[in-house]
Amino acid sequence: MKKLYILLSVAFVSVSASAQVVISQVYGAGGNNGATYTHDFVELFNRGTSAVTLTGHTLQYAATSGTFNASNIQTLPSITIQPGKYFLIQQGSGGTNGVALPTPDLIPTVAENFVILNIAAANGKIALVNGTTGISGPTDATVVDFVGFGTANAFEGSGAVAALSSTTSASRNNNGCTDTNNNASDFTVGPIAPRNSATAANVCSLGVKENNIAGLKVYPNPVTNGKLFITSDANVEKTVAIYDVLGKQVVNTTATESVNVSNLKGGVYIVKITEEGKTATRKLVIK
Predict the structure, then answer these.
(1) For residue 206, what pLDDT band results from cuts at 50, 70 and 90?
(2) Comparing C-alpha atoms, which of 283, 201, 287, 221 is closest to residue 15?
(3) Strand, helix or coil at 23?
(4) Spatial separation of the C-alpha atoms in residues 21 and 91, rounded to whole Å
(5) Is the pLDDT of residue 2 over 90?
(6) Residues 189, 199: Cα–Cα separation, whole Å
(7) Percent helix, strand, coil in the chain (nearest 5)?
(8) C-alpha distances in Å from residue 166, one per residue of 40, 42, 134, 153, 236
(9) In what order do the strands lie in the sheet with 187-191?
(10) Does 13 score more than 50 pLDDT?
(11) Which distant-in-sequence residues (6+ apart) come within 8 Å of 226 by Cβ?
(12) In whole numbers, what is the pLDDT of the chain averaged over residues?
């Protein structure tokens, strides 16, 4: 997820407005035989605490083993999503079966949005992207959120969401609030429940309770030689996650003393450190 904030006290969970917008639900069997709804849809959700305006963003879709190309890149208008609110985007249809969606917030047209996405009923992958160029996968710098489902060959984390059906969608857990960058655990396949901007707000509790990690030291800061040392009194293994200023997780590892950051470009980052159930965040500068 991509983000943009500066406040260190909420750094790792609030690293920017746009990073807080996620794909919260996907349905791809619209209009098919036995379908619940007449159209496919993608539902977006603002899980942050401030309004987000998506400008220059696209939805990009590809088949389970296909590539992202212009024929499946849908440009989005400037969309403002308030905290805890949903945004429902109607997509293609495979027939006339099912009932109409709740009033979509956006019904794309070829004239305005270049393409209407026809999402596969069971397997595929879709991304929210900050840009109009086709992506190669979930780790591209412009990817805001990425969801692989069924037999998709690309996904966030350890695995794809389970396959969808005519009567099931992939829904992000905790009404859209859960985002650990792992499709397999962040989503549940189940009954379809499309939500639009008229749906009551669901403001997420994204704060991370920080407990003191005794003797925690993070140095040198700035890092100039590609190695970051993280030590504590306990001297036990720590989970270390590093996020760039766009909120993209660029490092996720375990360490007892040092982390190799030589592949990171110079700039400002946020480090989240977890040790024996205790969590701390630090601002990090790499030169």
Answers:
(1) low
(2) 283
(3) strand
(4) 19
(5) no
(6) 21
(7) 10, 35, 55
(8) 10, 15, 28, 21, 48
(9) 86-90, 41-46, 21-27, 168-172, 187-191
(10) no
(11) 260, 261, 262
(12) 88
Q: Which of 98, 114, 79 is nearest to 37 (CA)?
A: 98
Tokens in use for 127?
A: 């991304």
Query: Mapping DSSP to helix (H, G, I), strand (E, B) and coil, where does residue 101 land?
Result: coil
Q: How far apart are CA 257 and CA 241, in angstroms?
A: 14
* Domains, in order of start, for the chain: 8-191 (2.60.40.1260), 217-286 (2.60.40.10)
Q: Report phi then psi at 278, rounded to 5.
A: -105, 145
* Cβ neighbours around 210 below 10 Å, total: 14
Q: Which amino acid is at 30?
A: G
Contact 129, 139 (CB under 8 A): no
Report the C-alpha gap between 110 and 223 in whole angstroms. 48
233-264 per-position pLDDT tens digit: 888 999 999 988 667 789 999 998 999 999 99
